[in-house]
UniProtKB/TrEMBL annotation:
Keywords: Hydrolase. Signal peptide: none annotated. GO terms for molecular function: hydrolase activity. It comes from the Bacteria. Gene3D superfamilies: Isochorismatase-like. InterPro entries: Isochorismatase-like_dom, Isochorismatase-like_hydrls, Isochorismatase-like_sf. The lineage of its organism: Bacteria, Pseudomonadati, Pseudomonadota, Gammaproteobacteria, Steroidobacterales. It comes from Povalibacter uvarum. This is Nicotinamidase-related amidase.
């Protein structure tokens, strides 16, 4: 059974310095490696684009930030999903698109680990999809916890992956996925 690659929010706005310090500087290269591998194998690719409801967002429609980054431009035969909330399954036809094509396995990459990636992976697992999240093909930003303590992007990323692993998804590296996970 084939596995679809889901790229989440690889848009120009995610590079905005106002978003703060991030982790996984190699994430885009790993995402590109996976995308090229999927394309070469003619496996299904889904590009998720966040279209914000907030005019102050880097993903506000009609702005350059809402556009896909150059190296992650969808091809004509690749599916594009537009979402308005972090979860790519909510108020989109993503689940139906996958099921109609008998796709029951997905690999999730992109941003933000503790936001759109985690929300989408949780729903994917809850819907019964065999879900993989690629740890080094995702990243996040520094964030204050509920008590106001600033956590590094690495800490936030690790906690988000821990929330997902063996509960909603299997967390693997790019190399592990390319080797057949």
């Amino acid at each position: 059974m084939t596995r679809a690659l889901i790229l989440i929010d690889m848009q120009r706005g995610i590079a905005d310095p106002a978003l703060g310090r991030r982790n996984n500087p190699e994430a885009e290269d790993n995402i590109a490696r996976l995308l090229f591998a999927w394309r070469d194998a003619r496996r299904p690719v889904v590009h998720v684009r966040h279209i914000s409801r907030s005019p102050r967002s880097v993903f506000w429609p009609g702005q350059e930030g809402a556009e896909f980054q150059d190296r992650f431009q969808p091809r004509a035969d690749e599916h594009v999903v537009e979402k308005n909330v972090p979860d790519a399954f909510i108020n989109t036809a993503l689940e139906r698109w996958l099921l109609v094509r008998d796709i029951r396995k997905v690999a999730i990459v992109g941003v933000i680990t503790n936001n759109s990636v985690e929300a989408t992976a949780r729903t994917s697992g809850n819907l019964g999809f065999d879900t993989i999240v690629v740890s080094d093909a995702t990243y996040t930003f520094d964030k204050a916890d509920f008590n106001g303590t600033l956590r590094t992007a690495g800490e936030v990323h690790a906690m988000s992956l821990a929330n997902l692993h063996d509960e909603y998804a299997k967390v693997v590296t790019t190399i592990e996925l390319l080797r057949g996970n």
